[in-house]
Design goal:
7 strands, 12% strand, single chain, 7-stranded parallel β-sheet, globular, 9 helices, alpha/beta
């Protein structure tokens, strides 16, 4: 419950730590099938009106960090549209219900963001359904572990770059004309942009690109009164990991190498997105917030 999450306690023991059971899933994975179940804030996030009547579009909003952000935004008073793959419909339906339970409008937009036409239609549909757009969260990502560079196929490389970079470009480009002064863009990068692992080279490449994109775009958009920032997670307990993002051997000890000694739960990072979306962050733009369990970012 919310009171339990926010009471003073040792953060190392606040949520489950390794060892975890092996739990392979086909990509992109479902939160419903994870053991233990991730905490997206379904029962533990309480809002206080920081985003009242804002209109937000979140990519990858069905599970993981995107799901936690969608729940937090709704409980802070925002109407929320989420994008997701059709295969993630089961998770997405739960998020839509949670948004509506918070008394806010929820818009479900299924499709593949590796397709440019869908990305541009996604923004148009979100704007039409919400009656405008104040917050864009580029969060959806693809990650597939491979033992060596030679094992990364052109097909995989193309999918990872289109999901993580091309879609971010297409969606942001389409959203910019709708954003008014006071609006915010928040991109999800990763600690992999700063401390890349040897088995997810293509993913790390895209996350470094998101950092550069964020910093460059922020200089343009502040001239329009729009802030652009990014969040760089470390190891978080999301379906991206067991569905091919990590080997099952690494899943067993996932999060054990960071100082806190466990993976983060999605609800633990959602407040940073709330801050960056809200007017409380009026002097914050062009920044990257590292949420890494103590590793930090360079």
């Amino acid at each position: 419950m919310a009171n339990d999450r926010l009471k003073m306690q040792d953060p190392r023991q606040q949520y489950p730590g390794p060892p975890f059971p092996r739990q392979p899933q086909p990509a992109p994975g479902l939160a419903q099938q994870m053991i233990p179940q991730p905490d997206h804030g379904e029962e533990s996030y309480t809002g206080c009106g920081k985003l009242t009547n804002r209109k937000a579009l979140i990519t990858g909003g069905d599970s993981g960090i995107g799901r936690a952000v969608a729940i937090a935004f709704a409980r802070e008073g925002a109407d929320v549209a989420i994008s997701y793959l059709p295969s993630e419909e089961a998770d997405a339906r739960e998020v839509i219900e949670l948004i509506e339970q918070a008394g806010r409008k929820a818009v479900a937009l299924a499709g593949d963001i590796t397709d440019e036409n869908f990305c541009r239609k996604l923004v148009a549909d979100a704007v039409e359904s919400l009656g405008g757009l104040d917050i864009l969260v580029n969060n959806a990502g693809a990650q597939e572990t491979q033992p060596s560079l030679g094992d990364i196929s052109t097909e995989q490389f193309d999918k990872v770059l289109k999901t993580n970079l091309y879609a971010l470009f297409w969606i942001t480009q389409s959203a910019v004309p709708h954003l008014k002064p006071g609006a915010a863009i928040i991109n999800t990068t990763s600690i992999q942009a700063y401390e890349p692992s040897e088995n997810i080279i293509d993913y790390a490449l895209t996350k470094a690109g998101i950092v550069a994109f964020t910093k460059a775009l922020s200089k343009q958009m502040i001239e329009k009164g729009v802030r652009v920032n990014a969040v760089a997670p470390g190891p978080f307990w999301t379906p991206l990991q067991p569905s091919g993002g990590q080997t099952q051997e690494k899943i067993e000890k996932f999060g054990s190498t960071v100082p806190i000694g466990r993976p983060g739960q999605p609800v633990e990072i959602a407040p940073i997105y709330v801050l960056l979306a809200s007017q409380e962050a009026s002097y914050i733009t062009g920044e990257v917030y590292g949420i890494t369990g103590g590793v930090g970012i360079a």
